[in-house]
Amino acid sequence: MTQLPAEILVLLSGWRIFAALAVTALAGLMRGYSGFGTAVILAPAYSVLWGPRVGVPVMLLMELVVSLQLVPKAFAEANRRVILPIGAAATLATPLGAFVLLTADQDLLRRSIGGFVLVFGLLMLSGWRYHGSRPLPLNIAIGTLAGLLKGATGMSGPPVILYLLAGPEAARQHRANLILFFGTIAVVSVIPPALGGLMGWAVLAKVLVLLPVLMLCVPLGAKLFRVLPERWYKRAALVFLVSTGTIALLA
Length: 251
Hints:
This protein is an all-alpha fold and about 250 residues long. It has helices at about 5-10, 15-35, 40-50, 50-75, 80-105, 105-125, 135-155, 155-165, 170-190, 190-195, 200-225, 230-250. It contains 12 helices and no strands.
C-alpha cells in the first residue's frame, strides 16, 4: 500500500497535474451542464499528459463514478426505447474495442484520439446533425460503433451525440438520454483495462487526486444548466474541444 502514497507524491511534484486539474474542472462543468463532455475532453488531454494506456483508464474510472451519480434521475426522463438498445449494443462491442487500447502503438493511438475529437468538435461547431429516423437496426449500429470507440479510445460519445441531438426531444430529455447512455456503458468499459493490467497504482493515484475536482464541478455544471444560455456555454466548450483535439493530434 506504500506504493499509492508514493505515486501521489510523484504526481503532485510535476506540472502535468495542474494542467490535468484545470481540464478536469472544465470537463466536470460541461458534463453537469450538457450531459456529455467528460470523455471527449479528458481522453485527448490525459493522453497527451500521460499516454493513452494511463490517461484512458483514469478517465474511464472517473466517468464511472460520475455516471452512477447522474443516472437515477435521468432514467425517469430519458427516451428508453431509443437509449436502451443503443446502450446494450455498445456494451457488447466495448470489449472488442478494448483490444486496440491494449495492443496499439501509443503515439498512433494518441494521434487517432486527437484526430477523432477534432473532427467531432468541428462537426458540432458547424451545426451538422443527423436528421433521419431512428429505427431499431440503426440504433443498434450506432451503439456498436460507440462501443468499439469506447473500448479503443475511451470515447463513445461522438456518434451517439450527433445521432441523438437531432431528435425531437426537449433539451432536458436530450440531456437525460445522454446521461443514461453513458451510465449504461460506464460499468463495462472499465473491465477490459482492469483485466489487461492497466489499472495500476499510477492510474489510481491520478484518480484519487482528480476525482474530487470532477465531483465538485459536475453539480455546478448542472446548476449552470438552469441559469446560463445554452449557446454560450456549449460554443465555448466546443472551441476548447477543437483545441484539445488539435494538440493531441500534433503533440
